Amino acid sequence: MSDLIDEPREGENAPEFSVTELSGAVKRLIEGEFAHVRVRGEVGRVSRPRSGHVYLDLKDDRAVIAGVIWKGVASRLATAPEEGMEVIATGRLTTFPGQSKYQIVIEDIKPAGMGALMAMLEKRKQMFAAEGLFAPERKKELPYLPEVIGVVTSPSGAVIRDILHRLRDRFPRKVLIWPVAVQGERCAPEVARAIAGFNALSPGGAMPRPDLLIVARGGGSIEDLWGFNEEIVARAAAASEIPLISAVGHETDTTLIDFVSDMRAPTPTAAAELAVPVRLELMGWLDQQGSRLTRALTQGVGQRGQRLRDLSRALPRADTLLESPRQRLDSWGERLPQALIRSVQLRQVKLSDIRGGLRPSSLSRRIEAEKRTLGGLSPRLPAGLHRVIDTKREALGRRADRLKIQPLEQDIRRKRNDFDRLSKRLSDAGQRQVTDWQGQVEALDRLRETLGYKATLKRGYAVVRGDGDVVTSKKAAAKAEMLEIEFADGRLTLGAKPSKPQPKSKPKPPEQGSLF
């Protein structure tokens, strides 16, 4: 290595190296001197290309080091690096000859203390709140009595025993347990897969789809609960179509999944209490409602029976109702035969009167007269028809010469052109008129704003009011118990408020002497 950096002795030529040889020598020197290092700094630019590798910058107030996290290492990280996070990176220094720069190949990266975790948590909260994931209107209502409850937790902890025991005491239900790691690197991806897996189950399939999900874990430090602050877990909970209760940590512990879930329970036991009602209380309530229904039905039937009996006593007897109609029927029955005989007699008399005028001889004379009239008119009919037809034909011929299509088409085209021209003139004139009116309105509005006393206030003047009226003199101001000064940006009250409430009056426009 000394051959590369020693100066040649006098009289000897300096050695020549290729670019590749020199870059390789620098790479071996740096990797030999800095085989394994730990660097503390702030994460700058972060790039995640499709290859799955992560490229970032580690910086402080005076220097920047480029870093790379290979795809296999990035997938195993417990905390994904984000811009602005203070971290401690562990890895080895190397060079990238293609760009003549050195970089650190990161093998592990962790937040630098509690402050970095809280800063990252607050940043994620702001991001999810901006996306609307915390909005109350997107939260789903919990089912009153779910048939199947899915629980995402560790199968070996006390949490699942507490949940099952509480469910068994309150209202036994079918429970599906999806075992996951509740802390460490595997926590976040396993919890997210469990939530998505429950949602992927088909209703009515071999494996029943839960009606409610509970994500539970016992208490712990923020590092222990950090898996439930990961973005993948929060987004999986927000995307769940099944209502979800988060029961992570104790009552004072708060994670991101608590904000995006449909309901937060302070403890896993409380989550079981929120999931189902108390069976004995529900049965007692049902018995109480059944007794009330029975009493109401019995009372209603009794009241309606009594009402029916009261109404029946007020109704007349059936014989009484039929006495008058029966008597009228007997009277009309006695009068009907005489009425029929009288009607027949009247019609016979009328028929006799009409029959006297209908004699065969008179009918024959009338028919002969009509025949003679018809015979006289028959020879004249063909000639008259021919004359009428000829007259109509001549009139039609005279009109046919005038009814040509070409003049009509020319007249239609001419009138259409005139109509289009007039329409365009009317539209242009209307547009100009509207533009003029709009300009006049805008000018008047600007004049209104200029002449208003609000614009005068913006130039440094003020309006003085004393006891509700505008004060225009020093003498009036001295007599007033309270002065109110109105500036362009608000009002300022000086002096004690009046003991009696002053009647409200409409604000008067300031006079010329009230501005200063």
TrEMBL record:
Residues 17-109 form the OB-fold nucleic acid binding domain. Residues 133-404 form the Exonuclease VII large subunit C-terminal domain. InterPro entries: Exonuc_VII_L (IPR003753), Exonuc_VII_lsu_C (IPR020579), OB-fold_nuc-bd_dom (IPR025824). Keywords: Cytoplasm, Exonuclease, Hydrolase, Nuclease. CDD domains: ExoVII_LU_OBF. It catalyses: Exonucleolytic cleavage in either 5'- to 3'- or 3'- to 5'-direction to yield nucleoside 5'-phosphates. It holds the Pfam family Exonuc_VII_L. Its main location: cytoplasm. Its EC number is 3.1.11.6. The keyword Nuclease applies. Residues 491-516 are annotated as: Disordered. It is found in: Cytoplasm. HAMAP family: Exonuc_7_L. Belongs to the XseA family. Heterooligomer composed of large and small subunits. Bidirectionally degrades single-stranded DNA into large acid-insoluble oligonucleotides, which are then degraded further into small acid-soluble oligonucleotides. This is Exodeoxyribonuclease 7 large subunit. It comes from Thalassovita aquimarina.
